[in-house]
Design a protein that fits this description.
single chain, alpha/beta, Gyrase A, domain 2, Isoleucyl-tRNA Synthetase, Domain 1, three-stranded antiparallel beta sheet, RNA-binding
RNA sequence: GCGCCCGUAGCUCAGCUGGAUAGAGCGUUCGCCUCCGGAGCGAAAGGUCACAGGUUCGAAUCCUGUCGGGCGUACCA
């Protein structure tokens, strides 16, 4: 498709002298495959747009081969010859296979992606799902463009809350089954400690002391307890990552950067942008608008979230010399990342623009914001289990003879959950509704998976076709071909904007077009040339849908 | 209070760097061939694109203000 568009652009450029003529898509695909609105160009010439469009029509038809230009009022529509369109695009897809849609434009460039990043000792909720699946998809999108990618799971394993947790384990640890059921046990201890703090101020000091010892670097009992908590939590997290098909290049908790904290602070101090304020070390950011200063060191000498993130970003820049460094973190932390970038800016670091906060909207419950401590959470594991159970139920009802229904149910159930989370634009808040996640009809992952399975089924039944495809018969499927031809552009744009939802909306729309076509035109049992052409389309569509699902981290079953 | 984000059909959302009659899904109503998978397909109904100004040949899209909602707002992360 790109070659056609390039040819059209080149012809327009040659004819009009425009540097980079902007092509659009006609509202109605019957108008053409691509369109050039003539308003602006006509204005420059001081002539009415319809007249200019008509003149261009003649001129461009003389220049273009295999593409027809047609003026429609102020618009100039382009239609690629039908036979050529099918042969070219389906040929590209067949040649590309699993690589169709990828490119090498990112080669030699490095992108670091910080995502998932759960806090140890807390169960993963549906809230953590967002960072995990969005980040994983962004990583795959960049891999598809040839970037060197470094996915980092920045585990929340540091901070004063862990002083509290260690103190809680010390006090009440033997009242729960830590080894057997670590996360709920730790959560219970934490909540209990938090409550008893209210009436016993001694506990506050005890927790503070524990964190101080932790941060002092002494390898004593406190650190040993902390290490154990971390290990237990990571084992639990891994189970979920396995189900989601997510992996990381590096799992580095905040603690990893602990040895670099002092030098990070020094670096900011040496840049001359720090000052003492109310006993704390801060970077004033009033030059960037009404935003509070960035705190680097508390009055008691311990560090903060911002300090550790600063140390981390310095470290990453030195280690990877990244071209992009993304933080897939919720929108509630916008201020934090603005502050972080402003500090880099004040330090005069020219790579500051490469650091981006890829924010996403909050997952909310009908009762309000999720809060682990208040018991207002939906556990991710439960949702995955519910979805898989629902998938198993539907399979038992609609396809009882399916081999290995368990594996397919896992693929469909988990796919439904993941797809649902990647469906809307990142910025949008989501009100969590289980019914919606468990729905498999309409704009859902299973709908796309179903389309994929159906096409695969047609392919299986068709076997090998010898005849040469009669491309002319794909006339009615031209809009689908154009859609498939756009895939590479969708991948590029989704990666650039760090917006996986672009792929979701694309693949939903493609699946819809394809389903409609399958209902309209029969593949099997036609004249050999007709079947061959339609089979090529089915095959191409399955390939593109499969490639898109892979980028999203959703399985593409051939039967379901 | 201040800052950031969001506001399109009853509900959930698309709408590309401004361009042709604002599109889907869910829900509602009606229909689908003894034929490739009905997790499907087709059709109907449903919209002052929150509101008011402005820029423009042209605004759901850009700018300003108002209203509504979300999030954040110096020693939590």
């Amino acid at each position: 498709m790109q070659t056609f568009l390039d040819a059209i652009r080149a012809a327009i450029a040659a004819e009009t002298g425009l540097e980079d003529p902007k092509l659009g898509r006609p509202r109605d695909p019957r108008h053409g495959d691509s369109a050039f609105p003539c308003f602006e160009y006509a204005k420059g010439k001081g002539e009415p747009p319809p007249k200019v469009a008509a003149e261009l029509e003649t001129a461009l038809n003389a220049r273009l081969e295999g593409i027809t230009a047609k003026a429609a009022g102020p618009f100039l529509n382009f239609t690629v010859d039908r036979a050529r369109l099918g042969e070219t695009i389906l040929g590209e897809i067949a040649a590309g296979g699993a690589c169709y849609g990828t490119s090498r434009e990112g080669e030699g460039r490095t992108i670091v992606i910080d995502f998932s990043s759960p806090n140890i000792a807390k169960p993963m909720s549906v809230g953590h799902l967002r960072s995990t699946v969005i980040g994983a998809s962004i990583q795959r999108l960049h891999e598809a463009l040839g970037y060197r990618t470094v996915g980092i799971n920045h585990i929340g394993d540091w901070g004063s809350q862990f002083g509290k947790l260690v103190a809680a384990v010390d006090r009440y640890g033997d009242t729960v089954d830590l080894e057997g059921d670590p996360i709920p046990s730790l959560l219970a201890l934490y909540v209990r400690y938090h409550e008893e703090e209210e009436s016993d101020p001694g506990l506050v000091e005890e927790a503070r002391e524990a964190f101080r010892e932790l941060e002092s670097g002494v390898d004593g009992p406190v650190r040993q307890t902390w290490r154990k908590l971390t290990e237990l939590s990571l084992v639990e997290f891994q189970k979920i990552y396995d189900r989601l098909g997510v992996s990381f290049d590096l799992v580095r908790g905040e603690a990893f950067y602990e040895p670099h904290l002092a030098s990070a602070v020094d670096r900011v101090v040496d840049a001359g942008v720090t000052e003492e304020s109310e006993g704390a070390l801060v970077v004033d950011l009033s030059g960037f608008g009404k935003i509070p200063p960035c705190l680097l060191r508390k009055t008691d000498g311990t560090t903060l979230y911002a300090t550790r993130d600063l140390a981390a970003v310095f470290h990453r820049q030195e280690e990877f010399a990244f071209d992009r460094c993304l933080y897939v973190v919720g929108a509630d932390q916008r201020l934090h990342f603005r502050q972080l970038k402003h500090v880099l800016d004040r330090m005069g670091l020219d790579w500051e623009p490469k650091v981006e906060h890829v924010d996403f909207g909050m997952m909310r419950l009908p009762e309000g914001k999720m809060s682990t401590r208040k018991g207002r959470v939906v556990f991710l594991d439960d949702v995955l289990n519910d979805a898989v159970a629902e998938a198993a139920r539907v399979i038992a009802e609609k396809n009882p003879d399916l081999v290995d229904p368990g594996a397919v149910a896992e693929m469909v159930g988990v796919g439904a959950v993941v797809f649902n989370d990647l469906k809307r634009e990142r910025v949008k808040d989501i009100d969590f509704r289980l019914e919606e996640v468990l729905s498999f009809e309409g704009d859902t992952g299973p709908y796309v998976q179903y389309t994929h399975a159906r096409l695969a089924s047609i392919e299986r039944k068709a076997g090998e076709i010898e005849a040469a495809p009669d491309w002319e018969v794909l006339e009615g499927a031209a809009p689908i071909l154009v859609s498939m031809g756009r895939f590479g552009e969708v991948v590029r744009s989704a990666a650039a904007r760090a917006e996986p939802s672009e792929v979701t909306t694309y693949v939903l729309s493609l699946a819809r077009e394809v389903n409609s076509w399958v209902a309209r035109e029969r593949v099997l049992g036609q004249e050999p040339g007709v079947t061959a052409a339609r089979l090529a389309l089915a095959r191409g569509a399955r390939q593109v849908i499969g490639n898109a699902l892979t980028l999203l981290g959703v399985g593409a079953p051939t039967e379901m």
